[in-house]
Design a protein that fits this description.
single chain; mainly alpha
């Protein structure tokens, strides 16, 4: 789901996917599954700009995934 989101965001911005987040950040997002910006900012590769520009969509994706897992 995170890879698909990254691809969609990259296409919409007319940028390569790695410009949204490199693979290692997606792996860490998948492993750690942060649901807050405070938790996500600790992941290497997520800085202030990405925090505001692209991270909210990824946090929403993670939250949706976690809620689906509980159901």
């Amino acid at each position: 789901k995170l890879v698909n989101l990254r691809r969609e965001m990259a296409q919409a911005a007319n940028k390569p996917a790695f410009a949204i987040f490199p693979n290692f950040v997606l792996i860490e997002l998948a492993n750690q599954q942060p649901t807050t910006t405070a938790a996500a900012i600790k992941i290497k590769g997520i800085g202030p700009r990405k925090l505001h520009d692209v991270l909210p969509a990824f946090l929403d994706c993670i939250k949706t995934h976690l809620s689906e897992q509980r159901d």
